[in-house]
Write a structure and sequence with these properties.
The complex is a heterodimer of chains A (716) and B (273). With 716 residues, chain A is an alpha+beta fold. Chain A has 4 domains: 195 residues, no CATH class; 96 residues, no CATH class; 119 residues, no CATH class; 97 residues, no CATH class. Chain A is built from 28 helices and 15 strands. In chain A, strand 8 and strand 9 form a beta hairpin. In chain B, strands 6-5-4-3-2-1-13-12-11-10-9-8-7 form a 13-stranded antiparallel beta sheet. Chain B is built from 5 helices and 13 strands. Chain B has 273 residues and is an alpha+beta fold. In chain B, helix 2 crosses helix 3. Chains A and B meet through helix 4, helix 8, strand 9, helix 18 and helix 19 of A and strand 1, strand 2, strand 3, strand 6 and strand 11 of B.
């Protein structure tokens, strides 16, 4: 006991006695600080991100068909995993719900669709074709009609309303032709003479002529064919959008993921087909590009305190808006164009009458005029524009490439937009839209036994033999083949017989409603499992796997982290990086402390020799060096831990702002509030003490080798 | 060879497609051309010959069977009606089988290739690289041919393709012409003038697909005053997704006149109301 107290007194006295000790202490301080802060951040991010994932799409666990090549990867929408479908969801739902810790089983499958938009003139002509089509929308008599605008959703409008709509669309098309003609003239003037097909110029002149429009009403479809085939292709602004979505039972999804919030429109009625677009996708992909760019600049200036003058990205957005005014010009009919010119002349104090030039000047914004022009745009110009390509209530045609390789398309009504609370600006959480399960199944293109039978029947009727690639030339041109010429006899082809004797009937599925039983019976790609007590996740997963094995459900159960692909592995990756960084720091610490203590010991040869001369044993000397180094570790480790803890506590109150959209997801919101992790604190302390202890062993052993004679020699 | 040159120099003085058609139909199959490299004019004449054989003088309707084989995926089998009015450069493909595809179709008018899906009632513009019905075939496999107008030929050599002696030609697209494949190689049967093998390349020189047309069928056309030729079967092998292939069988051809207004969107829409 006396020894121990003496050693402690010596070590405390010596802590600040040497400059080398201070260096070693600061290294220990920095390492402890790093472990406490890093460990707490990673641990907190693990929790917040898991909350984002579990509460948005994944649930606590996922089940999928065990024969699948891949695992579900809910957020890896750029690469759809190769999953075999679960043939009948109703057969797995009950058994999984029988586990007492399972509160809900929500069917889910991720896919990516393509939404094709024709060019601007194609879109207007399509509307005009629909309005002119004999079967498009029923006509109500005036007495039946409600006041107000035509109700497109019901397809009912009065004759007068229909005529007004057609006249408005025609005027818009004429305006577009005028714009295209102007563009072509400019194009020819800019030294590109000859690059414009003379036939196109003639076609444009014909389409712009009063005679063309005078005859339009008498034969609208033929006039439309002319416009679609001779004029529309001259506008090269067609577009397609890649839309990732989760096909699910929307009612069950909304009940199980309570972060879901409807932003625009409403929820899809129970049992109906329909889609909810992610608000993030809606703003980024469906909004008028010029308006979206203005929003981005506005957000950067007002929320992120950035300036156009200093930010090249914002300057690029300004440039794009200045140069890409075509989308707006083509949207405006003649009356709106005149009005827009007048608004812009007022805003710019200009006498210019050319709308594209005015728009270009208007969008040439800087830090001093941006907010004023932003306001003018939304207050005065936006009401004349279609700010979004589609609105809640519209029907969207989406198509996918099925697993079989061909294209399936469905019409889906868009009921509204949604976001996950706290993840409003997360591009990750906002990357997925929600689609009803019936439409999802149609787009998946599941090859039913009936379809396989139909294919086999067609193959059999054709009676042809498949020739493998490597045998093609030998089979087709070798053997007894001497000529490539055959001669048929004339034979009339009966179109009706080829079509199966009757016209194909199509059903408007967007209005069809389904029972819960119908929704449940059918293929799904997987299902999210929501638990009552998430802390029992591992045990519940084991139970669910056992249920599947016992009932031959053919399922595989994985946790949320495994089911979210790259995103789920992000925390593991962060932990790995922290571990590697820690390992490197340990090694560096070990070497530096070791060297420093060796140098310090060498400086104390006289002192140690004298101690040995007056009777100190070697063991005492050994303990003295080790205890001194440990004391150093404890003192500076405590200071490092305290500073690290103070920083984490400060961040817990102040928060760390997400630097970009991606971090919204990892932070589970716009700000990250980490909390102090007891494990990190204790772990850091233990590690630091052990490392300092180990690094003191060699110098301590060296010190025991010092003899009184050496001490005297050193003095000499 | 001299006989061939004398013949074609006389032919070139007599302009007009009818004469050339007569030459191609009557003389070309019987000609025993020498193995020397073909001149540019001779190659252009070969291409013109192919174009003339395939081009219809009036209307054209064919019942076509398409079968798609894909690696690790179920086969796709479809039937379609192909309508053509070559004089107006119009083409329509209307799928008739299986039931889920019936009513879907393509309409080519001028530079526009439209696709109609009655399931959603929507028309979409497609490019010339469109995989017809999800198969490896494209629009050119069903349409008239304009090889001489679109490509510049280059002689590669005389080769054997199984039992057939063929000319191997390499075609490069002409400036300003928009085609599905800018580089194409053809193997043309010396005896009949039919092409038996074709390889399509991307601009980078990457081989995209190989197709074989081992049997050529012909029907007498009153409007053309000669034979209307068409490949009886086309075996297309995908060179990008190895293991994928398509078989196209032209089961029958009808050269009767088609309704005047049928190459319109409205007509195709009426097939699935």
């Amino acid at each position: 006991m006396g020894w121990a107290l003496l050693l402690l007194r010596i070590s405390l006295r010596n802590i600040f006695s040497s400059f080398l000790n201070v260096i070693v202490g600061l290294i220990i301080l920095a390492a402890t600080f790093f472990f406490v802060v890093g460990g707490s951040l990673v641990n907190s991010m693990d929790k917040t991100m898991s909350k984002s994932i579990i509460d948005s799409v994944a649930g606590h666990a996922q089940v999928y068909e065990s024969s699948s090549k891949d695992k579900p990867a809910l957020f890896d929408s750029w690469q759809i995993p190769d999953l075999d479908p679960i043939p009948d969801f109703s057969k797995i739902k009950g058994p999984l719900l029988s586990d007492p810790n399972v509160s809900a089983v929500v069917p889910e499958g991720v896919n990516t669709a393509i939404v094709v938009y024709g060019n601007t003139i194609d879109q207007i002509l399509e509307k005009l074709r629909k309005a002119e089509s004999p079967g498009a929308g029923s006509i109500m008599e005036p007495a039946q009609s409600n006041p107000g605008p035509p109700h497109e959703a019901s397809g009912q409008m009065t004759r007068q309303q229909r005529k007004e709509m057609i006249d408005s669309l025609k005027a818009h098309v004429r305006q577009m032709i005028f714009v295209i003609q102007n563009d072509m003239e400019k194009h020819n003037k800019i030294g590109a003479a000859g690059s414009v097909d003379p036939q196109s110029i003639k076609d444009l002149q014909h389409a712009a002529s009063p005679a063309f429009w005078a005859g339009f009403d008498a034969d609208p479809l033929n006039h439309l064919e002319f416009l679609e085939n001779k004029i529309a292709y001259l506008v090269p602004d067609s577009d397609q959008i890649f839309l990732s979505y989760v096909g699910t039972d929307l009612d069950a999804f909304a009940k199980s993921f309570d972060r879901l919030q409807i932003v625009d429109g409403g929820m899809v009625p129970p049992g109906h087909r329909g889609m909810l677009l992610s608000k993030y996708v809606y703003e980024n992909m469906f909004k008028l590009k010029s308006a979206h760019r203005l929003d981005q600049i506005h957000e950067a200036i007002t929320e992120k305190r950035q300036t156009i003058a200093k930010n090249p990205d914002l300057q690029d957005l300004v440039r794009q808006n200045r140069e890409q005014t075509h989308e707006i010009v083509l949207q405006l009919d003649p009356l709106s164009s005149q009005k827009a010119v007048s608004i812009l002349q007022g805003a710019l104090h200009s006498k210019e009458t050319d709308l594209p030039k005015l728009l270009s000047s208007f969008f040439d914004t800087n830090d001093s005029n941006f907010e004023a022009r932003y306001k003018i745009f939304y207050d005065q110009l936006a009401p004349m524009l279609e700010l979004y390509r589609l609105k809640p209530g519209d029907t969207l045609t989406i198509k996918t490439y099925t697993k079989s390789g061909y294209v399936e398309a469905v019409n889906v009504k868009i009921y509204g937009t949604f976001q996950f609370r706290g993840l409003e600006k997360s591009s990750m959480a906002g990357s997925l839209s929600l689609m009803d399960l019936m439409s999802f199944r149609d787009l998946y293109g599941y090859v039913t036994p009936e379809k396989i039978a139909e294919t086999k029947s067609l193959e059999k009727a054709a009676g042809v033999k498949f020739v493998p690639r490597d045998q093609a030339e030998a089979d087709l041109f070798g053997g007894s083949t001497k000529t490539d010429v055959v001669q048929s006899q004339p034979k009339a082809i009966n179109d009706e017989a080829a079509m199966g004797g009757a016209k194909v009937k199509r059903v408007d599925l967007t209005r069809q409603a389904y029972t819960q039983d119908e929704i449940d019976k059918g293929i799904v790609m997987g299902a999210a499992v929501i638990l009552k007590d998430p802390s029992k996740l591992k045990q519940t997963m084991k139970n669910l796997q056992a249920i599947s094995d016992k009932d031959n459900l053919g399922l595989k159960v994985i946790d949320w982290q495994q089911s979210t692909g790259f995103v789920g592995q992000f925390v593991n990756l962060t932990k790995l990086i922290l571990f590697l960084a820690s390992f490197i720091i340990f090694v560096v610490m070990l070497v530096i402390i070791n060297n420093a203590v060796v140098m310090a010991t060498l400086q104390r040869v006289r002192e140690i020799g004298t101690m040995r001369a007056i009777g100190a044993r070697r063991l005492f000397v050994l303990f003295m060096v080790v205890v001194e180094t440990m004391a150093l570790g404890l003192v500076f480790g405590t200071i490092g831990s305290a500073l690290g803890s103070a920083l984490v506590v400060l961040l817990e109150h102040v928060g760390m702002a997400a630097p970009n959209d991606w971090f919204y997801f990892f932070f589970s919101g716009p700000k990250f509030f980490p909390w102090l992790n007891a494990g990190s604190l204790i772990g850091a302390f233990i590690v630091v003490v052990i490392v300092t202890c180990i690094s003191a062993l060699y110098p301590a052993w060296m010190a025991t080798r010092v003899s009184p004679i050496q001490a005297i020699a050193a003095e000499d | 060879m001299k006989r061939f040159e004398r013949f074609f120099s006389r032919a070139s003085r007599l302009r007009g497609e009818i004469f050339l058609l007569a030459v191609v139909s009557v003389f070309l199959p019987g000609m025993m051309w020498a193995a020397d490299a073909l001149t540019q004019a001779q190659m252009v004449d070969i291409l013109k010959g192919i174009d003339l054989r395939i081009r219809s003088g009036g209307d054209y309707k064919a019942l076509v069977y398409l079968e798609q084989h894909q690696k690790d995926k179920p086969d796709i089998a479809q039937e379609a009606l192909v309508y053509r009015r070559d004089i107006d450069q119009k083409l329509m493909i209307l799928f008739t089988q299986p039931k889920t595809d019936a009513g879907k179709g393509y309409l080519r008018v001028d530079r526009n290739l439209w696709y109609y899906d009655p399931t959603v009632g929507k028309w979409e513009r497609r490019t010339d690289r469109e995989r017809i019905g999800g198969t490896d075939s494209d629009r050119e496999d069903f349409d008239q041919s304009d090889l001489a107008g679109e490509y510049d030929p280059q002689f590669v050599g005389e080769e054997k393709l199984g039992n057939f002696t063929v000319w191997h030609l390499k075609l490069t697209v002409k400036n300003g012409v928009d085609v599905a494949y800018p580089l194409v190689e053809f193997w043309v049967d010396e005896a009949t003038g039919n092409y038996l093998k074709r390889q399509d390349f991307a601009l980078s020189g990457r081989l995209m697909r190989t197709s074989y047309d081992p049997k050529w069928d012909k029907l007498y056309s009153d409007s053309k005053k000669g034979y209307q030729w068409f490949p009886h079967e086309i075996h297309i092998y995908d060179e990008i997704d190895k293991g994928n292939s398509t078989l196209v069988i032209i089961q029958s051809v009808d050269l009767s006149a088609l309704p005047e207004n049928m190459f319109t969107k409205a007509w195709l829409e009426t097939k699935s109301r």
